[in-house]
Write the structure tokens for this entry.
Amino acid sequence: MPFHFKKINDADVDFFQKIVGHQHVSDAETTLLDHGRDRTSVVGYQPDLVVFPRKTAEISQILAFCNQNNIAVTVRGAGTGLAGGAIPVAGGLVISMRRFDQILDIDKRNSQATVEPGVITEFFQNEVKSLGLFYPPDPASRGSCFIGGNVATGAGGPKAVKYGVVRDFVLDLEVVLANGEIIRTGARTLKNATSYNLTQLFVGSEGTLGVVTKIFLKLIPHPTFNLLMLAPFRSVERACAAVSAIFRAGITPSGLEFMERAAILRAVEYLGGTSPVEILPETEAHLLIEVDGNYLETLHQDCEKIAEVLEKFDVGDVLFADSEASKNELWRLRRSVGPAVKKGGIFIEEDTVVPRGELPILVDFVQKTAKKYGFIAVCFGHAGDGNLHVNILKEQISDENWATEVPKGIREIFEKVKELGGTISGEHGLGLVQKQWLPIVFSATEIALRQAIKTAFDPNGILNPGKIF
Ligand SMILES: Cc1cc2nc3c(=O)[nH]c(=O)nc-3n(C[C@H](O)[C@H](O)[C@H](O)COP(=O)(O)OP(=O)(O)OC[C@H]3O[C@@H](n4cnc5c(N)ncnc54)[C@H](O)[C@@H]3O)c2cc1C
């Protein structure tokens, strides 16, 4: 893709050093390499320079300068993204948010918090939990990703099925625009009907509209108890069909995750071969089901009801995790699926999402498409949300087939997703790797409206060029 941005020169480096301090600017080869990739398998890009600012005012000066001098800017959180959003495809400057790592306020009176974007999600969750509060959005990467990255990607996670995604917890944002102006997008209120909702526009904008420098979040009371069960199924379709049946029985689990056989086996291997559960030869898929609340007796009743539902779908022996240790082991297994599946090298992860009742059709279609085009697709994901991560692994596939056959299969899967009422990304965003599929789900007019929004915020197109469109 042809870009026409200015390459950073020595005078520019001097300018950035004056703003953030000499030690917080780097053009070291390893730094440029590290900041040239994320957790996709895309390689081959790197920025000219990386800066590590600490204050909003510094970012404001940096952006104003880049805007005037036509320098491309890519904002970076923790670099755990799975869509290539943080990859600086046009070179230029990477702004790392690593030093924006403070929880500024936890307001117990209003059940709210103010955080900087470089705070690690799990750290924040633990801090509010110690005060009896709950911040549910918990991407499986929560131990390493930043809340700012979560906001910018519109992240989800296992708890989204009951509590909602990151977007449902963001009340207001401080943002630096491309021209360096600093704005607030909303208010610290639970309701806000004051014209267009800029806060929600920035959630999921993947660093293309501005740099998020402060985040105002809603919190809720932490539930007292949770129960966890792992259910094995002899058929993938039946496991998926059980998902919507659980809701129809009147229960909203706080987690409802799907792992097909290949996914869980890879996770077991990734964890050194030890498994909290025996994976029987006839088991084709598992559902990990969590319920939470304040009354243990009610939760036990919910689990009994879920077990009754599962019986109708040819479930095997359900494992109930009865201690914190065994619950942690099962969640560790689930959280290891992502890294385990990707461990083997080149992969593409498709973040498909459909209305949850359509999940059995989608899974069946993915399997048939993989067979038709000769690729391996390992599926897992947030089944309660209808969000299926389809991991296509290169492994033995020839370079030619990878380049020609696999994209045909992906196109067919996304067309099916659209037909089922779904879309091409549930929580990872489009970034670099998914943008080619946008015309499958949006018309030319629908895309043009989004491009007009981008132009209104960033007329010179310096912010995260080459992404989304
Ligand atoms: C093992 C694993 C499991 C995962 N599980 C989940 C999951 O369950 N759910 C889920 O949603 N995702 C998941 N992800 C994907 C990833 O962790 C999320 O997309 C996460 O939100 C990215 O955060 P980050 O800080 O790493 O952002 P980065 O990857 O650094 O950046 C992502 C995007 O956000 C932009 N950005 C970052 N910070 C800012 C800012 N302050 N202002 C403006 N733009 C910004 C970047 O420009 C980029 O476009 C997983 C990833 C891995 C590796």
Observations:
- The two ends are 12 Å apart (CA to CA).
- The first strand starts at residue 25 and ends at 26.
